[in-house]
Amino acid sequence: MAGVAQGESAADAAGLMPAFDGKITSTPPSPSGKKVGDKERSHTNSHFCFERAIRPKKQNLPMKSLGNSSFSERPMYSVVVNNYQEIAELTLPSKRSIVLIAGDSRDVSSSTIAAAAESLLESGLTTVCTWGPDCERVHDVFDEVYVGDASHDPSFILMSTWHSSDTLAEAVHFFRDIAFPDDHDFDETSYIAITVANAPLAGQIESILLQPATDEPEPDQ
Fold first, then answer.
1. For residue 54, is pLDDT > 90?
2. Distance in angstroms (rounded) separating the CA atoms of residues 83 and 56
3. I need a surface site. Which of 29, 112, 125, 168 has the fewest CB within 10 A?
């Protein structure tokens, strides 16, 4: 994976998002079982107190098919939602799904994020990558929903990362080329890029996803 970016991302430079700072401190293992980043973080390190938001009824919101990944050869999709409530309405297209959530989440309540997390987890989410302002909190809420009250062992391992210090290209390449499910269902896995309320950003993400697989992301993305 590319190193932590020190400068602003392409989205910052284009005025699509305000500048934000952060550091990747939670990364999933690679397919070989080795750590990808400097640290791995326990799902139980932080705890939120929030009430569950009322979950909307699921709908078949249209997803744009991007064909198969040049790296994994698994199907890729892109969808733009107006808000986190619409994330909770999504029906994921495969038994297992690796999801990127990109957008500005600073004004979104933790309960609304939790409702989206619960819905996606029930629909087959196995890996979630988050990018954009307040993406670390989004990551933490997903972890909290996954762990629940710790009264039972989950039936699968959720891999979750946040990419607050990565450029957009670095985050998208991590999502496409490094994020793998930690089980044997890879043949039934797809990649879904969810962009929240930012169609131009979705266009950039789609462009990066369609680039040929390389060891490093293209510069200035």
1. no
2. 12
3. 29
H/E run at residue 162 = strand 159-162
Q: Within a 13 Å sphere around the CA of 142, how many CA atoms are in the beta-carbon half? A: 31
* Predicted local distance difference test score (pLDDT) of residue 33: 33
Residues in the chain: 221
CA 75 to mean position of chain CA atoms: 16
* pLDDT tens per residue across span 103-157: 999 999 999 999 999 999 999 999 999 999 999 999 999 999 999 877 777 778 8
Q: Return the number of other C-beta atoms located less than 10 Å from residue 98's C-beta.
A: 27
Task: Report pLDDT for 151.
Answer: 73
**Whole-number Cα distances in Å, 126 to 61, 77, 129, 175:** 20, 16, 10, 12
How high does pLDDT run on average in the chain? 76
With contact defined as beta carbons under 8 Å apart, do 195 and 79 qualify? yes
HSE, side-chain direction, 13 A CA sphere, residue 202 = 18
